[in-house]
Design brief:
With 121 residues, the protein is mainly beta. It has a domain at 42-117. 12% of the residues lie in helices and 31% in strands. The chain has one helix and five strands, in the order βββαββ. Strands 3-2-1-4-5 form a five-stranded mixed sheet. The longest helix is centred in the C-terminal third of the chain and has 14 residues, at 81-94.
Length: 121
């Protein structure tokens, strides 16, 4: 039966992972069409998970879009605000941040976020 492909095929059900109808503010995409020609002009951030032998941890990373260098990261057993803030704080502590730096991320609740870091940082 296997050689003749007569085995049953299960159809997988679609599971949505993004809630596009959330009550939160959606920020404009400042990155579209932007040509990055120097370090520390655009930082991009994301969160993923790392599977361990008996569990897993979450990794938040902030990358410089020009050099593609990881400028900040944080590991945690929980996916929460402190995970993302820890990576951003580490990046801010290790780089020479100037007004106008764009931090672009897909937040852990899967809605786009872009902000411009001003001189208050």
């Amino acid at each position: 039966m296997r050689e003749e492909s007569r085995l049953g095929h299960l159809k997988r059900q679609f599971v949505p992972t993004t809630d596009s109808h959330h009550p939160f503010q959606v920020y404009p995409n400042l990155v579209k069409g932007l040509e990055v020609d120097a370090p520390d002009v655009l930082w991009v951030a994301d969160i993923t998970y790392i599977r361990l032998l008996s569990s897993f941890v979450y990794l938040a990373a902030v990358l410089d879009a020009y050099s593609r260098k990881c400028v900040g990261w944080n590991l945690s057993k929980r996916i929460d605000t402190q995970l993302a803030l820890g990576a951003l704080e580490r990046a801010l502590a290790t780089r020479d941040v100037r007004p106008g730096l764009i931090h672009h991320s897909y937040a852990w609740n899967l809605r786009k976020n872009t902000c411009i870091l001003n001189s208050a940082m």
